[in-house]
Structure formats: structure tokens, C-alpha cells
Amino acid sequence: MQKIQRMLNTYDLIVVGAGHAGSEAAAAAANMGSKTLLITMDMTAIAKMSCNPAIGGIAKGQIVREIDALGGYTGIVTDLTAIQFRMLNVSKGPAMWSPRAQSDRLKFSAEWRKMLEKTENLYFWQDTVNELIIEKNTITGVKTKLGVSFKANAVILTNGTFLNGLMHVGKSQIEGGRDSDSASYGLSDQLKKYGIPVLRMKTGTPARLDGRTINFDKLKEQKGDDNNTLFSYLPDVKTQLKQRSCYIVYTNKSTHDTLKKGFEFSPLFNGIIEGTGPRYCPSIEDKLVTFSEKESHMLFLEPEGEETIEYYLNGFSSSLPLDVQYNAIHKMEGLENVEIFRPGYAIEYDYFDPTYLDLNLESKVINNLFFAGQINGTTGYEEAAAQGLTAGVNAHLKINEKEPFILKRDEAYIGVLIDDLVNKGVDEPYRMFTSRAEYRILLRQDNADFRLTEKSYNIGLASEERFQLFKYKKQHVTEIKKLLKETNIEPELLNPFLKKQNLSLIKQKERLIKILLRPQIKIKDLIPISKKLTDYVKKIEKIKDEILKSAEIQLKYQSYIDREKQTAEKLKRLEKHKIPESFDFTKLQSLSTEATQKLNKIRPENIGQASRIPGVSPADISALLVYFGR
Questions:
Q1: Structural domain includes residue 447
Q2: Which residues neighbour 431 within 8 Å (Cβ) at sequence distance 6 or greater?
Q3: Same domain for 8 and 47?
Q4: Contact predicate 234/81, CB 8 Å
Q5: Each residue of 265-294: pLDDT tens digit?
Q6: What is the DSSP letter of 309?
Q7: Mean pLDDT, residues 383-387 taken together
Q8: Percentage of the residues of the chain whose pLDDT score is greater than 90
Q9: Are residues 483 and 542 in the same domain?
């Protein structure tokens, strides 16, 4: 008995769930010094890629770079297990560039477990949490299915799609959080009693295909980038895995006709599925209804790993009966004889209204209880991981009586994500896009370390190694910019290059910065022409390409960056007008009824936050400014 008591001691912090949110939360809290217990239903499925085997993409890639700049693990694990890298949107400006990688699904999860097992202060327990221990509206621990109780000063819930999870394949329904995994029960009912709204959402996944039965000769190959774009800012983190291609597949009229025959059996259309699905990652059934005029949809065949023959049919998620899926897939060119490993399915699960959270992701109802990931109404590994890291950091800070770590909308996509969830709420699975950010030029994927690493280091998360690397980069970027602004180039040195590129020649000495500002010129073009620049670049011992690219982007887009910073500063002035925590907005008769209701529900900390709540008008903001003394 005494031995058991020693084992079941009190932890500083407990993380429930070891998906992408839970893994980042546990790592962050432990690395900051909290004795952390990570409870998961399956130790072999840590950070499992339940859906597509890829990380990053439009805006999502920016989030992963931010996680890495802060000291999280997602970027590192992705780089180590990648089988393809691509930088998306390179034809557009750098604010739109977004890294994306295909990963080996099994190695991704195994590498995550390895990273977590090497993390000091982090402990593990395989079990299901079915009850929270709450005393006087403060969380004090959890109880598990095995009947074990664990005490902690804070708890982070990252239950993903497991809460009352229900999977659908046609008329077949299976209780579970994902294929082959059990659902989790108890927590939703308990939290509902505390007044936290519990709602339902739906997501889905496509069939997995046998690569041996695919005719790749009929498909368009999509190779990765040759320069191996990376997520992590750490220079020695690189994949050693064999790189693999993806392939493009198209649906056709026959595919659509076959799918439509099964609509009467679709749980999505016959009322069986009640949860709201993701608008921006719809099932194939949704696509045929929403885009009925289209005769074809582009799909992507993505390899599940370095060696495996299993392929993921991206864009073809479905809850239709197996025979309908099977017949429809066989109508596509290249897939006429394909065999299926497992069908696509839809899954319904519980989530909690995120407007019941503060910006540090702590519950407004239960003290020291934090929520992160899909249970906040988001979709995607990247959005979940970002919330997990934020919750892990803030749970540690809270129990150590320190100020919360809140990223603003002009500081990170993570700030945009959490601000949107808390202030606007969700009525469909939330997915990050660059269009959601007002300050895209400031929030580029290349400068996440400039924005976030020092902040993270100052709160004790980013390592000394990472901080020193950032300082090294910042120093060289500053000196290269200074050199380009102060160094002249003579016509006889530059004009041969300009002539070769069919560009206008110079007639007298020009500053290198003026030449670089030409859209067609890159900094690497100037290095062999200018001796000063050549000599300086030779002194850079590490991350040379990253330093040069960063200096180039900062110089080329400086006027746009400055303009966006000025706009951000004007709006941030509203953040300085604090609102008392217990203020009753019904006192202000000049507020609209909708504004009063929304403000009393969300309890904004300042007028800036209030201005971003839907239903709060500029007139309402003016009234608040007058009342709180502009």
C-alpha cells in the first residue's frame, strides 16, 4: 500500500490526451519545470496522424514554424520523419509562402514518443480519464476508468474526437474516437452540469488504398522541392528518410453518378449525423452538392510512409456505405483495379464552446482547468498543437502565479487562432487561413523566430541553444542589411550581369540596396559581384541561406512591413483600456442589447478584445471608450 501511495503522488499538472495538442502541452509544461503527468488511452498512438499523413499547408505551415520558434516539438518531429517537403504559394509574395511536408505516419508517432520520453519532468499513465475532481470550482485532479485518482494543481483537457465519439460508414455506427480506438465517456456530462455548453461536430477521413493496385502511369506525379524546405529553425534537424512523390487523381461524371446513388444511405443527408462538418475540408458528398456544376474534382494520392504501399486519397473523405465508396473509387482513371485497405468514415464528437475560455485557454467557469485542441471546435493537427503549447505554457504560469502568456493578433497566427476562438466562438470546425489574419506581412513563415523566440526564452520555454541561434541570425541579418544600404556598386561590375538578364543598366554608382529592390534581383545575384558582400558572406558559419533570405525579404518589403506595423499599433491602443473583470455591462444603457449580452458572456479583458466580438458595433466601442475614460 505504501508503495502505491508513492507512485500515485501529486503532480503539478496533468494533461489528458496525447494527441497533437496534448503532446505539445505536456512537453511545454515539463520543459518549463512543471512535474507533468500525460494520461493517454494508448501509449502506442502518441500524436497519431488520424487523418492525412501531412503537416503544414496554407497558414498551417506558418503555425508550425511559430510552434518551433517557441520551442515546441511539432516542427522537429515533422522534419525528422518527412518523406516530402514543399513550399506552397511561392509564385506569390512571402506573406503567402507556406511550408508543407508529407510524413511517415508510423515514424511520426514513434518520434513524438521518443521526444516526450526524453523530456525531463514528464511522466506517463495509460488509462481513460472519466471524471474530474473539482473542489469549490477549482480543479484538483482526475479519476480514471481503472479507478485511480491523480492530484494536480492544474489539468489540461485535450480529448480530441474521443468524447462520446461515434463513427459512421453508411448505416453502420461504431462507438470510437477514430478507427480501432475507443470513445471516452463521462467528462461531457460532468462539465455540462457546470454550465459549459457541450455541442457536436463532425469530421471525416477517406479510404486508404493499396499502392500495388494503382496504375501510376495514368496519374500526374507531384514531386517535392529539391531544396528540402524545413520547419525547424534548428540547423541539424533534417530527415534521413527516402523522399517520395504524391500523385494527382481526378473524379469524373461516372464517379459522381455512382456516389449520388448512395446518397439515400448517407448518414450525412438522412439525419443520422447531427454534428456540423468542416466547410473547408468537406466530404466528397458535400462537394457534389455544394459544387453541383463541377464535373470533376482534383484529389491527391499521398504515401503513408517511407516504405509502405498504403496511400491516403486526400479530398475523398466519405461516410457513404463501403460498396458505394468502392465502386466510385474504381471509376477514376488509374484506380480501376485498386484494392481498399479500409473505408472512409465520418466521426461525430463533443466539443465545448470556446467563448467560455479566457485568452490563456483557461476555463472561465472552473479555475485551473484548461482546454486545447479539437474540443475547442478546431480542426487540424497544427491548430491543435498550437493550442496545446499555449495551454501548457499558461497552465505552468498560472500555478506558479505568473502573468499569462498571450500572443496578440499582430504577433502570431497562434494569437489570431485563439483570439478568434475566444471572442467569436465557432459554429463549424475552425481552420486557419492566411485571410483570417489582418497582418499577414508581419506574420510570415520566415520570421517566426524574430517574432517569438525571445518572448519564449524570457518565460523559460525556448532553450538557450535556440535563443543563441536566434541572436546569431539577428546579428548577421542586421549587418547584411547595413552593408547593402551603405555599399556602392560600379556600373562596370554590375552592368554585365544586368545585360545578361535583359535588365536596364546603371550609368553611375548605385547603392546595393537600390539594385536589390528591383523585383527581378535576388541577394544571391549580388554576392559574386560585390567583394564586400562576398567577404562578409564567407564569415557566416551556419544557417547562411536562412540569413540571406531573411535579410532580402526584410529589405524588399520594408515599406509594407512598416505600414502594417503602424496599423497594428493604432489598433493596439484599444488594448490599453482595461475592463474590470466583474464589470456589469447592463450598467451602460447606451450599449445595444446584443452587445450587452455578448460582452457579459465573453467578459473581454480590454476594449481591443471587445471590438473583435461579433455583434459589438463601433458605436458600442465608442460608448465603452467614453465610460472608461478615453
A1: yes
A2: 278, 279, 280, 281, 378, 379, 380, 383
A3: yes
A4: no
A5: 777 766 777 777 777 678 888 888 888 899
A6: -
A7: 98
A8: 76
A9: yes
Residue with cell 550581369: 497
In a domain, 386, yes or no: yes
| Continuous H helices in 412-557 | 413-424, 448-459, 464-486, 491-500, 512-516, 523-526, 531-539, 544-556
* 101 touches 78 (CB < 8 A): yes
Whether 122 and 191 share a structural domain: yes
Cα(440)–Cα(437) distance, integer angstroms: 6
Dihedral angle at the C-alpha atoms of 540, 545, 550, 553, nearest 10 degrees? Answer: 130
Exposed e or buried b for every residue in 484-513, given b needs 16+ CB within 10 A?
beebebeeeebbebbeeeeeeebeeeeebb
Look at residue 322 and tell me if it is in a domain: no
Residue corresponding to grid cell 508543407 = 100
In this structure, the answer to whether residues 29 and 140 fall within a common structural domain is yes
Interval 116-175: pLDDT, tens: 999 999 999 999 999 999 999 999 999 999 999 999 999 999 999 889 888 888 878 888
Radius of gyration (Cα) for the chain, nearest Å? Answer: 26
Longest CA span, the chain: 89
Q: Find the length of the chain.
A: 630
Using CA atoms, how far apart are residues 113 and 448, in angstroms rounded to an integer?
A: 26
In the chain, helix, strand, coil percent, each to 5? 40, 20, 40
Write out the E strands in 234-309: 246-250, 298-303
Spacing of C-alpha 96 from chain mean position: 16
pLDDT of res. 265: 79
pLDDT at 2: 47
Q: Give the total number of structural domains in the chain.
A: 3
Is pLDDT above 60 for 1?
no
